[in-house]
Amino acid sequence: MSVTLLTFGCRLNAHESDAMEHLARQGQTQDGKTIIVNTCTVTAEAERQARQTIRRVHRENPTARIIVTGCASERAADAWAALPGVSRVIPNTEKTRPSTWGLPEKAGHAPPPSRHIRALLQVQQGCDNDCTFCVIPAGRGHSTSMPPEEIIPKARALTEAGHCELVLTGVDIASWQRKDMGLGQLCRHLLDEVPEITRLRLSSIDPMILTPDTGDRALWDLIADEPRFMPHLHLSLQAGSDLILKRMKRRHSTSDVAGLMAQVRRLRPDTGFGADVIAGFPTETETLFQETHNFLEEQAIPFLHVFPYSERPGTPAARMPAMPKAIRQERAARLRALGQTMRDQFLGRFVGQEKTVLMESPTTGHTPEFAAFTLSETQSSHRGRLERIRITGVQDGMLTAEIP
């Protein structure tokens, strides 16, 4: 049986699909074709695209077995099972077991290398927050933290496979906790136990882990003193209006975020900040939207990931007075335009500097601050190499660079 993976959604889904693909390669036979669709439920659009894909692959492969898994199918298994060609819906907790797809289980498999140059390393699963707009806890369950004795061997295997940069990922990695260890202590432990890790980066984090007064002290120490800890933080911000944050049932305030960003910038001035932001949340008047716009502009966050609000049935936000979809789209476009301006301003500060970067293709990659760059047309390097470059300019939202 041959197995094809089709993946939607977040980095965690991508990471899990990498593992599934690795296991499938070891167990494939010539007996038929199986297509596994790994779904996402964050937005209605993500679900629509997955349903559309299932219908298309069934038309193109009418004899193939289609297996559906992921967060969307976790919430409505019967509806996904009724789609044409779907033979089985697998829970998230079972999707990395080949026996659920019809392949034999094999013990003793080494962790797979990542297909990404910056390798993803899962440390956590699930979420205990109850944000009013979110259905992820229904798809991923309660927060669970993987123990260091499982994480360290996986990190070591990734470095042995040639990955020099690891990205810690999960649903809510800020909630990682084992006995008396928090996320910062885990990062410190990883860097001490696996010295081959040249760069360690975090995926999206809840801002509360870095509030100046109560945040993770070990994480603050890494930001201040550890050169292998990348100066890039992507915050699960969602809004820049305190009233909207309250209605979202987020735990942070705008002053919390402003304080942590100011402190990080004092310690590492060129830190690249990213943020997830929802535009057009229910009850968001033009005045409240402008509060978010102004906050993002004041904080000069260069890497914005903007979503127009998407109703998720069964959530408290879905029962709140909704904004027209056209207004959500228009506000999202305004925030994206602001983001482009702030990104270009941020990138401009690096012109003339030299950076050690990780090449993600022969000509492109990201700086430690997560600024994308491209080499001049006459130069190239090698995928996966740490290269020293000189920044020469900014073009089309990217840095231009040359190898000195």
TrEMBL record:
The keyword Ion transport does not apply. SMART domains: Elp3. Residues 1-106 form the MTTase N-terminal domain. Residues 91-112 are annotated as: Disordered. Keywords: 4Fe-4S, Iron, Iron-sulfur, Metal-binding, S-adenosyl-L-methionine, Transferase. It comes from the Bacteria. Its cofactor is [4Fe-4S] cluster. Its EC number is 2.8.4.-. PROSITE patterns: MTTASE_N (PS51449), MTTASE_RADICAL (PS01278), RADICAL_SAM (PS51918). SUPFAM superfamilies: Radical SAM enzymes. Residues 113-347 form the Radical SAM core domain. Pfam families: Radical_SAM (PF04055), UPF0004 (PF00919). GO terms for molecular function: transferase activity. This is MiaB/RimO family radical SAM methylthiotransferase. It comes from Bombella dulcis. The lineage of its organism: Bacteria, Pseudomonadati, Pseudomonadota, Alphaproteobacteria, Acetobacterales.
